[in-house]
Specification:
By secondary structure, the chain is mostly beta strands.
């Protein structure tokens, strides 16, 4: 049977465009404000204190500090200098905040002054403040994976080994903590009272390398945003059975859930914000993919306004990598290096990172 080459090309093009169209949906969300705040230092997490109406932005490096911005005006209302950390969160009841610097910085969330520094093991990275029993959880890729602090006085209550690298944690407010284990393709279940891991949910049948975790506490639904397959694995927080698996953008590093709208959100470094609608505890759909600036890969929710806050910056071109030294001449009779080998040893060569453009750091506000 003869075939029309043009028709075949059209079908092939359609097959490519259909998946892309699924990621280009219109919907109620958009970027509604961009706030340039500038400043030096790297960045990782951003946290909204909806009750106190403040946004905590941690900057790392030699100029590290914790910037505090009003959630309504985005005017800077405080600063904790000399603290190089990944992020910060506060406990409304005690008025105390903690930053995942090393050592941990404990501060007053009313006047933004340092209270004390707390030496902990591991490498503080992610974090969770649990209002259930007023404890701050320090997440570390190196053991001990979790260090638990008392919000009242900053004392170390204990450590928890979950057998892998934690990325994001959520509390159901009833004594259960859930933590995605990025390098084990799993979610750890922790008893907040005993500070013991009581279970582990395996996600490897669907995806892995999960960096974002959100929770619908009312219906006991977990949303694990994963990098391995660029998807959101949705599962029961009660027993871990997988309910759905939906596509996201590329390079997720954060997730959140808004119980007022029954929507989960996943932020990606490729410049996308995925919105997933929970129609029922067994029915989920990708409602919208919002275009955001690239590298805006961490996210927090202002529960009062329903706004989503992300942070990013602009970058210049990466400097050219230094030329690799010429390999020594092989000894007579020795086999030459196999073709395609990577310079710089088993890990290969990694060139210098692109520099941040001065003054370009910004807060992105997305909403309806």
């Amino acid at each position: 049977m003869s075939r029309n080459p043009l028709a075949l090309a059209a079908v092939a093009t359609l097959a490519v465009l259909l998946p892309l169209a699924a990621h280009a949906q219109t919907g109620p969300y958009k970027v509604i404000q961009t706030v340039k705040i500038g400043g030096d230092g790297g960045f990782d997490y951003v946290t909204a204190d909806s009750d106190g109406r403040n946004l905590y932005v941690a900057r790392s490096g030699p100029a590290g500090h914790i910037g505090v911005f009003n959630l309504d005006s985005f005017a800077q209302v405080g600063d904790l200098p000399g603290i190089s950390g990944h992020g910060a969160a506060v406990d409304t009841a005690t008025g105390h905040g903690f930053a995942t610097s090393k050592p941990i910085a404990m501060f007053d969330s009313k006047n933004f002054t340092l209270i004390k520094k707390i030496d902990v093991e591991g490498n503080p990275d992610g974090y969770l403040n649990d209002s259930y029993n007023h404890r701050f959880y320090v997440l570390s890729h190196a053991a001990p994976n979790i260090t638990v602090l008392d919000d009242k006085d900053g004392s170390i209550l204990g450590t928890i080994d979950i057998g892998g690298a934690p990325e994001q944690a959520q509390s159901d407010g009833r004594g259960h903590i859930y933590v995605d284990i990025e390098d084990k393709d799993a979610i750890a279940v922790i008893d907040a009272n005993t500070m013991k891991m009581t279970g582990k949910y395996d996600l490897s049948s669907k995806s892995g390398e999960c960096a974002g975790l959100a929770l619908d506490a009312k219906n006991n639904i977990l949303f694990a945003a994963c990098r391995k397959n660029n998807d959101m694995v949705i599962l029961s927080a009660t027993d871990g059975h997988i309910i759905a698996d939906l596509p996201t953008g590329v390079g997720c590093d954060g997730a959140t859930f808004n119980p007022a709208t029954m929507e989960a959100f996943s932020s990606q470094g490729d410049g996308t914000l995925t919105v997933i609608k929970e129609n029922s505890p067994t029915s989920f759909v990708v409602e919208q993919t919002v275009t955001t600036p690239v590298r805006a890969k961490t996210i927090t929710l202002d529960t009062k306004t329903g706004h989503l806050l992300l942070i990013t910056a602009e970058y210049g071109p990466a400097p050219a990598p230094a030329a690799a030294p010429a390999p020594p001449a092989p000894a007579p009779g020795a086999a030459s290096q196999a073709a395609g080998g990577r310079p710089g040893g088993p890990g290969g060569y990694r060139g210098p990172r692109a520099p941040m453009i001065p003054g370009s750091f910004e807060i992105i506000v997305a909403g309806r």
